[in-house]
Amino acid sequence: MSKKQHPSTADSPRELDRRSVLKGIAGVAAFAALPVVLDACSSGSGAGSGTSGSGSGAASGSGAASGSGSVSGSASASGSASGAGSASGSASGAGSASGASGAGSGASVSVPKVSGTLTIGSNYSDAGVKKAFGDVATAFGKASGATVTVNTVDHNTFQNKIQSYLQGTPDDVFSWFAGYRMQFFAAQGLVSPIDDVWEKIGGNFSDAAKAVSKGADGHYYFVPIYNYPWVMNYRKSVFQENGYTVPATWDDLMSLCEKMKSDGLVPISWTDKDGWPAMGTFDILNMRMNGYQFHVDLMAHKQSWTDPKVVAVFDQWKKLTPYYQTGANGRTWEEAAQDLQNKKTGMMFIGAGQAGQQFSKENLPDLAFFPFPQINSQYGTDSIDAPMDGFMMSKAPKNKDAATAFLEFLGTAHAESIYLASDPTDVGVASNYDQSTYNALQKASAELIGKTAHIAQFLDRDTRPDFAYPIVQNALQSFITNQDSNAVCQQLEAQAKSVFAS
Amino acid sequence: MTTSRTAARPASRTGRAGGGRVHRLTRRDGVVLGLMLGIPLLIDLAFVWAPAIASVFLSFTNAQGAKAVQWVGGQNYHFMATVDYEFWPAVRHNLLWLVVFIVIATPLGMLFAVLLDKGIKGTRIYQSIFFLPVMLSLALIGIIWQLMYSPDNGLINNIIGKTGQGNEIDWLGNPHINLWAVLIEATWRQAGYVMVLYLAGLKAVDPSLREAASLDGANPWQMFWRVVFPTLRPINIVILVVTVIESLRAFDLVYVTNGGTNGLELLSAIITQQILGAANKIGYGSAIGVVLLVISLVPITYFLFMQFRKENRI
């Protein structure tokens, strides 16, 4: 698992850290009450080890980003450790980055001199992205003269603990996601508006990027750093060998799938064990059939899930089922992407960056993609999901000058290029980004995002976090099994009513 | 506790302690007693009662993240019972877990123990094999079995030849069978646990009982059920308690498998989703916690009732 998998996996975590679990247990009386039984169980046999359920944190293989970018290793503020007994430093680490050598390309920008220490909370915990962001922090420290401390926390842990993190003593700036998922916390007053930053950097960004960086109150809260589009990925060699052509419409897609099937290929990789990949397919079908605005309204529950337009989306989705891999709920997205790489399947709908990450270096040039074909000519292919990651400023930063300067620095093509120098799959957000450094996949991503009128952020970032998980996740997983459009819509509407009313 | 003190006095030597005689405690005794009772009491209050009562209180509020806490009455319970698509499956799954442990895992463990107690050849090796899973963390067991169950690459499907498109068995993804698949994982571990407890109990059975029974012409079946099993009563109670605890606290396996969704809902898993998820629904999570508490109280009360009755009888 890496940060590049959709960050939403945070909400269906495989990994749990001991502290959160202990916290949970403290809150959950039932667990706490169990020791009573054992006390009472006076026979004194060794049986009494029962209650320490917390101890066994999942030792899954994510996280461990050992101090790539870090220089000095003071323990991270949050000190999260994945899994009981695993090395406590695995998910955390602090690096003081001032004065070290900077990476990077592109034209440099003027950065105002600031003093003091800037602390940055980062969920860029896997080795590659940790180094990439460490380079950005180093470059800023060098240019501004500030001492920059990056507190890196395992990304799942970071996202799960965001509420308590922001209420406690958060870092001056911290990593987060654009869209509703940002607005949810902005509306609680847990982050600072940064309109002054955007006065400086506004010229670097498109209107679409600006829109998803604003809170519901119209103020800016977020500075993006990179994004990636959700597209239909395929291998060029497979298409060439079999004479397939990129489908432009739904009917083309259906006949392409039919052809692949007769060639003995499973047309489309299909996975939803992780709970979020199916959300991408729902999003794109909904936007192709009902348009971007309907997607936005549905996510905010201004439209009903039992609307016939939504039922129609699920009905359309069922037409893809014969061409999907079976057993989606038991397959991880990584396994599904491997099936695409191994030419077991012909296509896969997922983030371009995510597919690219699973491909080996030799196969990466063979990976290509096309935007999901048109279904309703009224909307054509005018919208895609292209989730954007970036940074925000906490409510009361200790060093506001440095935080402001850092966000201004981050909102430039220069800073993005430093980050992307060691990330071959994502693309920069700034409209004046120098694209000559991109590989073919990145060029295509940037071009697609540039020419698409409406950029959505992905279901779990466009709606309330407690609605996306576990409610939408469960509904889509049961739809995959039961193929019942009406049932899934009723299930979603019943729960949306309660959740959005609270 | 006063028995040893009174026993030292000549006057009490003939009779049992107690008997209505009250001894004045010295100041030092009082302090020692106060500390010995007070510290556990404080710990009990702080770590058992306080969180329990706080959970009950929170379950009637809409506590969520940083928001101000508001009293919402029974709204959480209403949502749970009528709207939440995870709650009733979770209750059913917890109960099924309990039934499978009592009906399958425990008898299996008992069977292993009885067979191994007969001193068959290589008994130590078998003991080690059956006990091995108990030494692994449940999270690790979940990961190991995912490798076995994986639809395309898993050991099981490859052995039975069901890895092709359309005919593979999606052990952990199909909501109709994945709970059973996980229960096999859980039983794999639980049977070993029960086996060790019973082995310890069987070793403690007085051999003269068996000898007497065989002289009386009891067959092995009668010998076990009529002679040995009744002497295992204390162990049986321990195992019953362990079984109930293990099934109510079941969490790790489903959590590592898929986070406790899609057919693997358990109360503990949905509490975690609510409280520790990004939305931090502490109030609603607490309400589910209270339900789990109430369910736990049933066996706990029964057990304590039995325990006290036994003590009174003695």
Task: For the structure shown, list the relevant keywords.
heterodimer; A: 502 residues; alpha/beta; 7-stranded mixed beta sheet; 4-stranded mixed beta sheet; 21 helices; disordered N terminus; B: 314 residues; mainly alpha; MetI-like fold; 2 domains; 14 helices; flat
Q: What percent of the residues of chain B sit in helical stretches (DSSP H or I)?
A: 55-70%
Structural class of chain B: mainly alpha
List low-pLDDT spans of chain B: 1-19
Number of strands of chain B: 0
Q: What assembly state would you assign to the polypeptide chains in this entry?
A: heterodimer
Which sequence of SSEs, written as H and E, runs from N to C of chain B? HHHHHHHHHHHHHH
Biggest sheet descriptor of chain A: 7 strands, mixed
Structure in words:
- Chain A has 502 residues and is an alpha/beta fold.
- Helix content of chain A is 42%, strand content 12%.
- In chain A, the strands form three sheets. Chain A has a seven-stranded mixed beta sheet with strand order 1-3-2-4-11-5-12. In chain A, strands 7-8-6-9 form a four-stranded mixed beta sheet.
- In chain A, β2 (117-122), α3 and β3 form a beta-alpha-beta unit.
- The model of chain A is unreliable at 1-5 and 7-107 (pLDDT under 50).
- With 314 residues, chain B is mostly helical.
- Chain B folds into two domains: 4-58, no CATH class; 75-312, MetI-like (MetI-like fold).
- Helices cover 70% and strands 0% of the residues of chain B.
- Chain B has helices at 3-7, 27-58, 75-82, 87-117, 123-135, 138-149, 155-160, 178-203, 207-215, 220-231, 233-248, 252-258, 267-276, 282-313.
- The radius of gyration of chain B is 26 Å and the shape is flat.
- Chains A and B meet through α1, α2, α5, α20 and α21 of A and α2, α6, α8, α11 and α12 of B.
